[in-house]
Amino acid sequence: MPSDQFQAEAEAGRLCLRFSGPLDSTIAAARWEETHQAAKGAEAITLDARGVTALDSGGAALLVSLAGADAEWQEPEDATARGALDRFRKGVGTVKPPSQHRRKLRPIAALGSLTLDLFRRFLERLGFLGETVLTGLRLVPRPWRLRWAEVLRHLDEAGTQAFPLCILLGTLIGVILAFQSSVPMRQFGAEIFIPQLVGISLTRELGPLLAGVILAGRTGSAYAAEIGTMRVNEEVDALKTMGLDPMAWLVIPRILASTLVMPALAMVMNVTGLIGMSIVMAMLGFPPVAVLNQLQQWLSVEDLAGGLVKAAVFGLAIGYVGCRSGLSAGRGPRAVGDAATGAVVGGIVSLVLLDGVFAILFFRLGW
Amino acid sequence: MAGEPVPDQREAVVSVKEAAMRYGHRTVFKDVTFDVRRGEIFVILGGSGCGKSTLLKLLIGLMPPSAGDITVLDGDWAKLQGDAKRRLLTRIGVMWQSGALLGSLTLAENVELPIEAHTRLPAAARALVASAKLGLVGLGDAAERLPAEISGGMVKRAGIARAMALDPEILFLDEPSAGLDPITSAGLDLLIMSLARETGTTFVVVTHELQSILAIGDRCIMLDKDAQGMIAEGDPKKLRDESEHPTVRAFFRREAM
Ligand SMILES: Nc1ncnc2c1ncn2[C@@H]1O[C@H](COP(=O)(O)OP(=O)(O)OP(=O)(O)O)[C@@H](O)[C@H]1O
Ligand SMILES: [Mg+2]
User: Fold this and answer.
1) Which residues have C-beta within 8 Å of that of residue A8, sequence separation ≥ 6?
2) Average of per-residue pLDDT values in chain B
3) Of A26, A30, A57, which is closest to B167 when you measure between CB atoms?
4) Phi, psi dihedrals of residue B231, rounded to the nearest 5°
5) Per-domain residue ranges of chain A
6) Ligand with minimal distance to B47 CA
7) Integer angstrom CA distances of residue A35 from A31, A63, B69, B119
8) Where in chain B is the domain with CATH 3.40.50.300?
9) B125 and A26: CB-CB below 8 Å?
10) What whole-number distance in Å separates Cα of residue A325 and Cα of residue A261?
């Protein structure tokens, strides 16, 4: 296919590819297929670039890829083009051919490394748990070693700043629960028991659980992202080399804050939920006094206290999972995102698991 | 030394007129005026925090100056939009002070990124160009690695390779040799000089490296934090030998002030 810019001629067993004129990325892209078709199957290639007047990287890539390893070159006469080609070949020349085994899929080896990876992660988690407990215990006799200012900051961030959200969600949940249960209850004329139903499910279950979900989403992920970023920026290593224990410095204040803050969040959920329920009851024609009476009669301090203890344990778990997720973050920017996701998912899973444990425990204790 | 300074006839590819930059109420610099001519290696000097990176961001159109005009290759960033702006962006290359490689891509993929976005070259060609560019900065054997797996100096060099991916007419480099060993750094100087001399690529380089400034710099300006602007302009060797300004003298003699 002769043309002004490119000609292919077979002469004495050699294929001569001749280029002329300017050869830039646009031309190279347009002619890539055609030229490679022409060169296919040739035993020996002579690359005649004498007439090339201008060359950019795309053009040089075309020439070099056509030439392969052992073509005979006829260099461009134009000095600038020759320089560009030289530089390109010099750059490519220093490149090691990429190793191929990276791409191969080996199922058995992959399974093995996955298992080992899981086991290693399990050990890591166990180690982290042990370290956290030990550091926590070591701080008990020397509470002044803890950075209380940091604890306060986290209390504010995880607690006070989450109150509006808790108030909103709590009220809505109270309204929804009361409203939904009013329909079947009305069939039995048992609407007066709605406060009991909502009160018990809120204080024992939903208050702590929803507060936990809020904490996992707001605070657990923030812990992971914050500590993860510090790890990526080598700030955690810097702390270590300054002789500061990242556990005592970063982890314990956060876990302490999340543990302390959860009963408060759960309490806010409880109270606002009951208020929401009272609103629905008022709409159904029951005065607040009747609702209060019902609550007084049926809701025990044990219900409330059990829920708050549960909340504190949830807080501990969520704070712990968030910090661990952050500290075990890998390197690179994606690591921070992964850590935050891990914190939320891990937090919510541990929340539900712990809730199950508590259900069995309370049942055995007869609460 | 040459006697009479010959007025430079080459066209100005970057032209800055009375540019000023403020962050909030704090002025970083004002009244900055200079031209960069085609094929020249132009160095921006100054102490840490004097606004070199900021000036570079203005030059590449990342943010508008608080006052003044900036023209690059006959395009005024403030007036360009859409395709025209994209086209101008393919004609310049930028290396960030921090490297700014995309962490989820390998070095080769990082270099291929602009090629993929702006040309129709097939994958094989892109890979070959990426290899050539990485090879030129001495990263031929690290093409398949992720940015998180290489050293700080290697990140810098990969950033330069990416900036060169489209054979730009102007390369803006923010501290290319910071964090490099003297041998690699000298190799980089050679590469910059050969690109400038042979292909007519223009370089705008922010650097502190005295040796590098004197070796490659055709012309320079010096910014100063206290003066909130330019305190010197000209051939770095002349400034070293002849400048009367105390800060300029201290800079070139590596003296504390
Ligand atoms: N986004 C920003 N907001 C507010 N101030 C900024 C911002 N970016 C930079 N500055 C300020 O502008 C000044 C100049 O910053 P710049 O990064 O340009 O310095 P530089 O000369 O590149 O310094 P270095 O040599 O350390 O890189 C500094 O005082 C810095 O604090
Ligand atoms: Mg800077």
Assistant:
1) A1, A15, A16, A17, A18, A35, A38, A39
2) 88
3) A57
4) -115, -10
5) 3-94, 126-365
6) 1
7) 6, 10, 46, 18
8) 12-91+169-253
9) no
10) 20
Cα(B210)–Cα(A189) distance, rounded to whole angstroms? 90
Q: How many CB pairs under 8 A join A and B?
A: 104
Contact B132 A334 (CB under 8 A): no
Q: Is B75 in a helix, a strand, or coil?
A: strand
Residue B79, C-beta contacts closer than 8 angstroms, at least 6 positions apart: none
Residues with CB under 6 A from ligand 1: B 23, 28, 46, 48-54, 97
pLDDT above 90 covers a percentage of chain B that reads: 39
A26 and B119 within 8 Å at the Cβ level: the answer is yes
Q: Do A94 and B146 touch (CB under 8 A)?
A: no
Residue A53 DSSP class: E
Ligand 1 mutation pick, B50, B175, B222, max ligand atoms within 8 A of CB? B50
pLDDT digits (tens, 9 = 90+) for B178-202: 878 888 888 888 888 888 887 789 9
Q: Which two tokens stand for residue A91?
A: 């750059």
Determine the residue type at A267. Answer: M
Confirm if A52 and A76 have CB atoms less than 8 A apart: yes
pLDDT tens for residues B91-129? 999 998 888 888 778 999 999 988 988 888 999 999 999
User: At the top level of CATH, which class does the domain A3-94 belong to?
Assistant: alpha beta
Residue of B nearest to A60 (CA): B129
What pLDDT was estimated at residue A1? 36
Q: Which CATH architecture has domain B12-91+169-253?
A: 3-Layer(aba) Sandwich (3.40)
**Measured between beta carbons, which residues in chain A are less than 8 angstroms from residue B140?**
91, 94-96
End-to-end CA distance of chain A: 90
